[in-house]
Each structure stands twice: as structure tokens, then as C-alpha cells.
């Protein structure tokens, strides 16, 4: 994976700039703190020690030392103030930016098409998104503490030493540059190890999510042993990759520790030598030791922090790649105003294939008249759901056009298009919210009466009121606490509430018993009045009364007509009908 700082900061910077005051305060506060704590304070100690070792009279020393104490207490107050200002600014800034980044990520994800989500693991998208914000937090902490602190301490110490002990300053400078150079070499290699580790980690999350969402299958096929083995294979792979990354980090520690040890011994040796020559005071000796301890503290962390920063950048890159994935379904730059009222739908020379797959539709043509009720039948995989998805622009056609009331659907905003279609998909999924909220999803300002009315029409009211918490019952993740038929009835109710001029029902009643379905059909008759309707169903009794029935085979229309016409034609439809005889399977 290639990390691009420019692309990462392209997304971070605008969010960070929105809070520029607290952003500046972090650096001003911490800068003040670290200068007074780590650079100025040792200077006072140096003066104190020199004072004590001077040959002046005791009283004079005491008097001057008292001044130093006052001075020291001032410094203590200043650096504490600086650090605390930095802390508060940091808490404010970080919490604000992290919130914005979460919101930004969510908004950006929602811009992607439905198709994007069906071809990406949702588990891994969730992990990556969460890691993105966490990694930003780590990165920012590293920039504002170790990197910034080290830089200030380093510059401060070097400049003071240049005035007081130029030889030592040159040695410090040379050593620090060498240290940084070696650290960078390590980091460049470690980034690759970390990227491999992050990839393995995403695989673990994706597998976990996939297995958990398939828990029913695992139980049905008693495949827990198989699943456990599969999961263990993935975690073993992660274990190896993780250990490789960590061990490389340990190697880096070894190199850093060796360099620090060498400098430490060398500086002590040199100090003794300089002292012997009379070029170094006792105070200076103590100050040097204090500076070295401070510098080592920061530099030791710096090496690790830079490695962690690189790791965070790698993790952020994963999400940036998603951000940068071109959005496959875009609104046109100047969308036309919505003029759809009647619902005359024309599919013109449509060809379509899912990514890297064989064509599903090939030169498909169909005109549906305003207010017409059309039934779509055909063998499983014939392309019925695909047609409904193209109509809602969940994917774009490879060639041809879909025109509604004279408007090409590509020229209107997707939200506008979907606002004129009530759609019940083949597998209705509900939000883990209350039944009331799920129904009201069709119309955000729906009143309690409206919700109850559509629930009655969709034959859902009866079962809802029997639930202990009625309309306030939470339905479980994806609606698992309801039966398939109950879930469908909620989905129908919320589509009814939307009351759009075009209705698309994809197997909307497939999970209902025949009696409930017959009742809902009556409600649909009312709902469909004056509206263009497309009904996809395997159960032919569902579409028997449609104005026109279209039989699809391999993405092409092979028969078309009313139920009566098709039955008398003795073609595929008649064959299907004979097998179902009036909607019920016969032998
Ligand atoms: N997201 C997808 N990616 C790739 N191929 C897909 C995708 N969705 C559907 N297909 C393929 O497109 C073809 C048509 O699928 P579609 O869902 O339109 O069939 P259908 O007629 O609705 O079938 P069913 O009656 O089983 O619902 C099938 O061969 C299917 O495998
Ligand atoms: Mg289908």
C-alpha cells in the first residue's frame, strides 16, 4: 500500500483548520511548558551548583540562592500553566475533530452506491472507519507530544550548548542527525510490516463479521468446527504477521539503545576531560547530564512514536482509499428539476452486467404506461430484481436509457428519483429501532394516526398490538426479532406511507401465507389506483390480476400479455401456471 501524506492531509486539514484557535493553543501551551521545564530549569540548577561550588562567602551565596528559588518557582508556575493550557486546548480540539471525522466518514460512505456496499465487506468497512478516527487521534497525540517536544528540546539544547560548549554541541548535533537517519531507515521498512499486519487485522474483522451475520447457517449446518478452524487459520496468519512487525520494532529498539548508550558514555568521558582541563564547570557538568536525560527521554519516545505515526498513517490510508474510490453513481452536475407525475416508464435498449460478470440484461426494451400494473415473472436469476434496481439507479446501465415521464433518470438527482418510487425489496431489512420508527421511515413527519392506518392496511397492526410494547417494540438487528412475514408487512406499511406515484414490489409478499397475502392484495388494489406499478413475484396468484404480465428469460422478454392471454398461449407462463395451479403447488 502506498501512503500519500498529501491525500491524507487533504482530508484532515480542513477539519483541523475549523478549530484553529485551540489548535494554536495546543502548540503555544505545550511549547511554553517544555521550554521552561526542560530547557530553562536545568539552567537554574547549573547556576545553583556553580554558586555552591564558588568561593564566595556563605551569606552571599544564600542570598543569591534565595533569588534563584523565587526564580525557580516562577518557572514552575509558567511551565505548569503552559502544559495545562495545552491539555485543555488538546481535549477540546481532539474531541471536536474526532467527531467531525466520524461524521465526515459516515457522510462519505453513504455517498457510495448500494452496489459498492454489496461488493465490499461491511465488517471491514466498519473496522476501517473506526480505526481511521482512532489513528488520527494517535497521530495527533504523537505530533503534539513526542515530535513537537523533541524538536523544541533538541533545538533549545543545541542552541544553548553552542554558546556554552561548542564542541559538545557539535557532538550532540552530529549524533542526533545520525540517530534520526537510522530511525528513519528503520521506519521505512517497518511501515511495510505494519501495512501487512493491518491487512491481516482487517481480514480477521471481516471474517468475524461474516461468520456472526451467518450464525444461522452455522447452526443449521452444524459447522462450528469448520468455522472455528477457518477463523483460526486467519488468526494464525495475523499472529505471524504481527510478530514479524513487532520483532522488527524490537530490532529498532536495539539499535536506538546502542546509540544512546554510546553517546552517554562518550559525553561523560568528554565532560571529565574538559573539567580536568578547566573548560567545564561543575554546574555545566550537571546541566549536561540533565539535558542528556531529557533529550534521551524524548528521542527514545520519538523513535517509537514515529513508528506508531507511520502505522497510524498506514491505517488511515485504508480509509482514504475508500474516500478516493470514485463514487460509481453520481448525480449529474446540473440535475433537472423533477417532473415525474404520471409514471410512464420506458426502458430503452438496456444492457447491463454486474462488475466482471456476464451480461444480465441484453438490449432490454419495455414501455410501462401511466397507471399500468405490470407483473414480472421468470426463472430465478432471470434479471427481475436487476431491472427494479436499475430503475432506482442502484447501478447504472452499461448502455441504453431509462426514461420516466420524458426524463432520463440519469439527469435527475438520485434522491428525487427515489422520492417518487415506493419500493419494497426482495429481502426487507429493518433498522434496530422501534416498529413505529421503522414504519415512519417512509415519511419522517408521519403522525401516529397515519402510521397506524398504513399498519392496518398492510395487516401489520394486528400482530403489532399483540406485542408487549406494541408500536414501541424494538425489532432487533436487521429486524431479527420479527418473523419473515411480519418484517415484510412492516416494509409494505412503510412503502405505503411514502405514497409515491410509482410502486415497485419485489417479492414483497413472498413470506406471507396465502390468506394474509390475499388481504394485502386488496389493500394494494387501493394503493395502486392511478399509480404505475411493477410487481415481481414467483407466486403467480400474486400477479394474476395485473394489466400486463412480462415473462423474462436470460434478461430478455419472451412473453407478454394478460394472464388469460398467456395461459392460452401455452408458452413458458402457461407451463409455470400449470405447475402452480391457482397459486398452490400441485404434484
Ligand atoms: N450484486 C451482484 N453482483 C454480481 N452479480 C449479481 C449481483 N446481483 C445479482 N447478480 C446476478 O445477476 C443475475 C440476475 O439477478 P437478479 O437478482 O436480477 O435475478 P432475479 O430474476 O431477481 O432472481 P430471483 O427470482 O431469484 O430473485 C443473477 O445471475 C445473479 O447472479
Ligand atoms: Mg430477485
Automatic annotation (TrEMBL):
<feature type="domain" description="ABC transporter">
    <location>
        <begin position="345"/>
        <end position="579"/>
    </location>
</feature>
<feature type="transmembrane region" description="Helical">
    <location>
        <begin position="21"/>
        <end position="45"/>
    </location>
</feature>
<feature type="domain" description="ABC transmembrane type-1">
    <location>
        <begin position="42"/>
        <end position="311"/>
    </location>
</feature>
<protein>
    <recommendedName>
        <fullName>ABC transporter ATP-binding protein</fullName>
    </recommendedName>
</protein>
<dbReference type="GO" id="GO:0016887">
    <property type="term" value="F:ATP hydrolysis activity"/>
</dbReference>
<dbReference type="GO" id="GO:0005524">
    <property type="term" value="F:ATP binding"/>
</dbReference>
<dbReference type="Pfam" id="PF00664">
    <property type="entry name" value="ABC_membrane"/>
</dbReference>
<dbReference type="GO" id="GO:0005886">
    <property type="term" value="C:plasma membrane"/>
</dbReference>
<dbReference type="Pfam" id="PF00005">
    <property type="entry name" value="ABC_tran"/>
</dbReference>
<keyword id="KW-0472">Membrane</keyword>
<feature type="transmembrane region" description="Helical">
    <location>
        <begin position="65"/>
        <end position="83"/>
    </location>
</feature>
<dbReference type="InterPro" id="IPR027417">
    <property type="entry name" value="P-loop_NTPase"/>
</dbReference>
<feature type="transmembrane region" description="Helical">
    <location>
        <begin position="138"/>
        <end position="161"/>
    </location>
</feature>
<keyword id="KW-0547">Nucleotide-binding</keyword>
<dbReference type="GO" id="GO:0140359">
    <property type="term" value="F:ABC-type transporter activity"/>
</dbReference>
<dbReference type="InterPro" id="IPR011527">
    <property type="entry name" value="ABC1_TM_dom"/>
</dbReference>
<dbReference type="InterPro" id="IPR017871">
    <property type="entry name" value="ABC_transporter-like_CS"/>
</dbReference>
<feature type="transmembrane region" description="Helical">
    <location>
        <begin position="282"/>
        <end position="302"/>
    </location>
</feature>
<dbReference type="InterPro" id="IPR003593">
    <property type="entry name" value="AAA+_ATPase"/>
</dbReference>
<keyword id="KW-0067">ATP-binding</keyword>
<dbReference type="InterPro" id="IPR039421">
    <property type="entry name" value="Type_1_exporter"/>
</dbReference>
<dbReference type="GO" id="GO:0034040">
    <property type="term" value="F:ATPase-coupled lipid transmembrane transporter activity"/>
</dbReference>
<feature type="transmembrane region" description="Helical">
    <location>
        <begin position="167"/>
        <end position="187"/>
    </location>
</feature>
<keyword id="KW-0813">Transport</keyword>
<keyword id="KW-1133">Transmembrane helix</keyword>
<dbReference type="InterPro" id="IPR003439">
    <property type="entry name" value="ABC_transporter-like_ATP-bd"/>
</dbReference>
<keyword id="KW-0812">Transmembrane</keyword>
<feature type="transmembrane region" description="Helical">
    <location>
        <begin position="251"/>
        <end position="276"/>
    </location>
</feature>
<dbReference type="InterPro" id="IPR036640">
    <property type="entry name" value="ABC1_TM_sf"/>
</dbReference>
Amino acid at each position: 500500500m502506498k501512503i500519500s501524506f498529501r491525500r491524507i492531509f487533504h482530508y484532515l486539514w480542513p477539519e483541523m483548520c475549523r478549530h484553529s484557535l485551540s489548535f494554536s493553543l495546543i502548540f503555544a501551551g505545550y511549547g511554553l511548558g517544555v521550554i521552561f521545564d526542560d530547557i530553562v530549569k536545568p539552567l537554574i540548577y547549573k547556576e545553583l551548583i556553580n554558586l555552591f561550588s564558588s568561593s564566595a562567602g556563605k551569606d552571599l551565596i544564600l542570598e543569591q540562592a534565595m533569588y534563584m528559588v523565587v526564580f525557580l518557582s516562577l518557572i514552575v508556575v509558567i511551565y505548569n500553566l503552559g502544559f495545562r493550557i495545552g491539555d485543555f486546548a488538546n481535549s477540546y480540539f481532539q474531541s471536536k475533530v474526532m467527531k467531525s471525522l466520524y461524521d465526515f466518514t459516515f457522510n462519505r460512505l453513504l455517498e457510495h452506491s448500494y452496489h459498492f456496499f454489496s461488493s465490499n465487506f461491511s465488517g471491514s468497512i466498519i473496522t476501517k472507519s473506526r480505526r481511521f478516527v482512532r489513528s488520527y487521534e494517535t497521530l495527533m497525540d504523537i505530533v503534539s507530544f513526542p515530535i513537537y517536544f523533541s524538536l523544541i528540546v533538541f533545538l533549545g539544547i543545541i542552541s544553548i550548548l553552542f554558546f556554552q560548549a561548542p564542541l559538545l554541541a557539535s557532538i550532540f548535533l552530529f549524533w542526533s542527525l545520525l540517530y534520526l537517519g537510522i530511525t528513519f531507515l528503520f521506519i521505512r521498512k517497518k511501515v511495510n510490516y505494519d501495512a501487512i499486519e493491518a491487512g491481516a487485522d482487517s481480514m480477521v474483522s471481516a471474517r468475524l463479521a461474516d461468520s456472526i451475520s451467518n450464525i444461522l447457517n452455522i447452526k443449521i449446518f452444524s459447522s462450528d468446527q469448520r468455522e472455528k478452524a477457518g477463523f483460526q487459520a486467519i488468526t494464525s496468519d495475523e499472529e505471524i504477521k504481527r510478530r514479524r512487525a513487532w520483532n522488527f520494532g524490537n530490532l529498532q529498539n536495539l539499535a536506538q539503545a546502542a546509540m544512546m548508550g554510546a553517546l552517554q558514555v562518550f559525553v561523560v568521558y568528554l565532560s571529565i576531560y574538559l573539567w580536568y582541563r578547566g573548560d567545564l564547570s561543575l554546574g555545566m557538568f550537571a546541566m549536561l547530564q540533565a539535558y542528556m536525560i531529557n533529550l534521551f527521554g524524548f528521542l527514545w519516545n520519538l523513535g517509537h512514536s514515529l513508528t506508531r505515526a507511520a502505522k497510524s498513517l498506514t491505517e488511515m490510508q485504508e480509509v482514504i482509499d475508500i474516500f478516493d474510490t470514485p463514487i460509481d453513481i453520481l448525480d449529474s452536475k446540473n440535475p433537472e428539476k423533477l417532473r415525474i407525475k404520471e409514471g410512464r416508464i420506458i426502458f430503452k435498449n438496456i444492457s447491463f452486467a454486474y462488475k466482471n460478470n456476464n451480461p444480465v440484461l441484453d438490449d432490454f426494451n419495455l414501455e410501462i404506461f401511466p397507471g399500468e400494473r405490470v407483473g414480472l415473472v421468470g426463472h430465478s436469476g432471470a434479471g427481475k430484481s436487476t431491472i427494479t434496481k436499475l430503475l432506482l439507479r442502484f447501478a447504472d446501465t452499461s448502455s441504453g436509457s431509462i426514461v420516466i415521464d420524458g426524463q432520463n433518470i440519469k439527469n435527475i438527482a438520485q434522491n428525487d428519483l427515489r422520492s417518487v418510487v415506493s419500493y419494497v425489496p426482495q429481502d426487507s431489512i429493518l433498522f434496530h429501532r422501534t416498529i413505529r420508527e421503522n414504519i415512519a421511515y417512509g415519511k419522517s413527519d408521519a403522525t401516529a394516526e397515519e402510521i397506524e392506518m398504513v399498519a392496518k392496511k398492510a395487516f401489520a397492526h394486528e400482530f403489532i398490538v399483540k406485542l408487549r410494547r406494541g408500536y414501541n417494540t424494538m425489532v432487533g438487528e436487521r429486524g431479527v426479532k420479527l418473523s419473515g412475514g411480519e418484517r415484510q408487512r412492516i416494509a409494505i406499511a412503510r412503502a405505503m406511507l411514502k405514497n409515491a406515484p410509482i410502486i415497485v414490489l419485489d417479492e414483497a409478499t413472498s413470506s406471507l401465507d396465502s390468506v394474509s397475502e390475499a388481504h394485502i392484495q386488496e389493500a394494494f388494489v387501493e394503493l395502486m389506483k392511478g399509480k404505475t406499478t411493477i410487481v415481481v413475484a414467483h407466486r403467480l396468484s400474486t400477479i394474476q390480476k395485473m394489466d400486463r404480465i412480462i415473462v423474462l428469460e436470460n434478461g430478455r422478454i419472451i412473453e407478454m400479455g394478460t394472464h388469460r392471454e398467456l395461459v392460452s398461449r401455452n408458452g413458458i407462463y402457461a407451463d409455470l401456471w400449470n405447475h402452480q395451479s391457482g397459486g398452490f403447488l400441485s404434484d
